[in-house]
């Protein structure tokens, strides 16, 4: 029973348990209209399982930050960190098994989707040695996995939906168990909802949502009406982690509260209508009086001729430097330094190219380079060269041949291919699978191996492995190969 938590009681008053170990393998979907008690259910689940398993909460409204004081969760304000730091924090959370609340209430909806996607992707791409079991609770999941396009950009929607799909479809092998809550099943992407094997259905009124909830619970259509009659905090549960047959659950009490919750029903202030009207229509407070500087110093009158003569005789201020135009060599040096600086930062290969390009432009401007002369495609190529250790502005003859060969390679494969070519040209061993995975922008060693197989099928490289597991990668068109290692 140590891995089971008490969710509440059934209609007969008997306790209803949820098996956390089974939940990690089968995932959970919570549905209910606003006010049905979804957040209360999630809070009960989090509080009761806090000492059993690591918890990661994607919190779009900041409702779960109160868990920090009572249960030691670390609150990460999504609006306070750049993309690179969000990725690092997610990786460290998996490494150190820290329970996290990612509070996104300070962001607009599109940026909430981007931040959540970055965080979830970093959890998903963690090295296999950090694949500890963890519950990933996503409140208002219809925001991050919408069933249809909305007012947000297509890029943000695709990125967020892909991250949620990875969590629900492929997260189990990485120790990640998705617990998603939504107001409406019709608004949640079907391929995300379909991966859950446990369900807790709360009160809902729309026919389409009632019918779909009844189908998930294995109920007949005529029984769907009872979902409309559920009281707040009451749910119908089904699944291997809850019950093999649909069971009514009254969620138990919780220790913490949402920051926006007001206990009870406080009465309105006991003020008369006239008093309240006077408060509403009161004039704004006057700011403190400022001294009349205009009357304190009256300038002497001057004629136009004397003023013009004074301007002509006035020397240019010595403390304002004239604008300096950088030469082409200086501009190339600034761009090269910025690329080298960015390529040496941890987690740079996991960031979207648009974010990297914006960061590159800002850093160049801060160093006096207003126009670096690169468009987005040229930047991606130069950045790949910098990450692989090639000089993007002064490659030698052999590196020029390598870059020419790389013209036919998709952009996502460019960095690892150039790194392999750089190693072969320098007579160094081929980067190991973990290094290739990072260069490829993933934590999955398997994806790195598949990437290498794709390069071999494309006749760009030849991979040889001896009985001891040592590997050599040759690039036939350049007549070079890495030593066996």
UniProtKB/TrEMBL annotation:
Keywords: ATP-binding, Nucleotide-binding. Residues 24-214 form the AAA+ ATPase domain. Gene3D superfamilies: P-loop containing nucleotide triphosphate hydrolases (3.40.50.300). It comes from the Bacteria. InterPro entries: AAA+_ATPase, ATPase_Atu1862_pred, HerA-like, HerA_central, P-loop_NTPase. One of its GO terms (molecular function) is ATP binding. This is ATP-binding protein. It comes from Tsuneonella deserti.
